[in-house]
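queue> pop job 88
queue> type: inverse folding (structure -> sequence)
queue> payload:
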């Protein structure tokens, strides 16, 4: 490895020196950590990581290379990657590129030989921070000033949502369910999980109006995952309020938070977020515990929870709400990712439960 220096500068003035292994340049973002042992390709290409710089807590990263079947979108949305040890010579029969070249091709900065345990403990103890990573010899005081002024854009969902309507049809349309999806930065594996079922799927841009959505006469609408603070999505929330009660609604991650806000619940920023493939969540109805894949920095608050929201899932690490339903309005939503990737497959059965619920209600309506 060529010993080109790179630096991580945290908003409180801490500077860590490492070795550059991606693109050259400077990038600002929110410093976060992910506890997954594998899945760096999926993590980097997950649109929910837009404007974030990811620290991988697992010590060896890059050892199985990059397989393009694992990507969650068309490009890397994260602003940078920080690892302890980079494996430059990957070993896997499915590898199509090494991690270093994958970052270079996407113009993303990577830093290795950094004490990722120090970063993780710092964020866990002190809360989330803004930072910069750079391969340049900056005036660090000037860069530190920029970091302290930096904020994730309020319209970040518009950066990751598809701009056009995309429809996935089935041969026998008469037997399929029609599902609409509002795309706030949907992962490919959510689409793949849906298409495994007997479903006709229509992906809609994030700003599709309530009248347009209802005109499709979907059997249900899913609000997808995505980046940013849910409270910044004020126009989307007002749009969803006009749909509530008129169509079954599902939500995942950001979609879950938006549904909660549309029902007049409150959200708040977590101290350091939930990001990884090993978060235990309990289904309060069945008592079953799932190991889940998660990526979010905000939570739905217990305080002043509206009466028509019933909590269905909780995180066993910190007892935060991980799922709710509203029988009154035919809404079900999850904070975690039932499609996993990266992560365990425990929760994928939830898709089947959701689909069966739509089927049952559809049959009941049709007599």
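queue> result:
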């Amino acid at each position: 490895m060529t010993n080109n220096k790179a630096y991580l500068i945290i908003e409180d003035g801490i500077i860590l020196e490492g070795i550059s292994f991606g693109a050259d340049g400077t990038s600002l973002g929110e410093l976060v950590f992910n506890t997954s042992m594998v899945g760096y390709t999926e993590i980097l290409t997950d649109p929910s990581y837009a404007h974030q710089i990811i620290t991988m807590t697992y010590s060896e990263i890059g050892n199985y290379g990059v397989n393009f079947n694992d990507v969650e979108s068309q490009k890397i949305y994260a602003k940078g990657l920080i690892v302890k040890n980079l494996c430059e010579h990957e070993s896997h029969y499915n590898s199509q590129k090494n991690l270093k070249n994958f970052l270079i091709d996407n113009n993303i900065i990577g830093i290795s030989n950094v004490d990722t345990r120090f970063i993780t403990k710092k964020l866990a103890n002190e809360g989330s921070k803004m930072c910069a990573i750079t391969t340049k010899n900056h005036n660090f005081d000037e860069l530190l000033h920029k970091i302290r002024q930096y904020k994730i854009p309020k319209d970040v969902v518009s950066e990751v949502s598809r701009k056009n309507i995309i429809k996935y049809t089935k041969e026998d349309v008469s037997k399929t369910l029609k599902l609409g999806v509002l795309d706030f930065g949907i992962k490919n594996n959510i689409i793949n999980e849906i298409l495994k079922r007997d479903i006709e799927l229509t992906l809609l841009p994030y700003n599709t109006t309530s009248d347009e959505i209802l005109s499709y006469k979907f059997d249900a609408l899913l609000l997808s995952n995505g980046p940013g603070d849910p409270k910044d999505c004020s126009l989307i929330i007002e749009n969803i309020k006009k749909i509530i009660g008129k169509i079954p609604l599902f939500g995942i991650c950001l979609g879950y938070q938006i549904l909660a806000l549309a029902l007049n619940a409150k959200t708040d920023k977590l101290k350091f977020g939930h990001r990884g493939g090993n978060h235990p969540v309990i289904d309060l109805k069945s008592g079953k515990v799932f190991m889940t894949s998660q990526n979010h920095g905000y939570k739905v608050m217990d305080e002043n929870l509206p009466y028509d929201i019933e909590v269905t899932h909780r995180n066993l690490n910190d007892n935060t709400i991980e799922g709710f339903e509203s029988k009154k309005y035919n809404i079900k939503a999850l904070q975690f990712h039932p499609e996993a990737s990266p992560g365990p497959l425990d929760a994928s059965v939830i898709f089947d439960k959701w689909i069966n619920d739509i089927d049952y209600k559809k049959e009941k309506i049709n007599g």
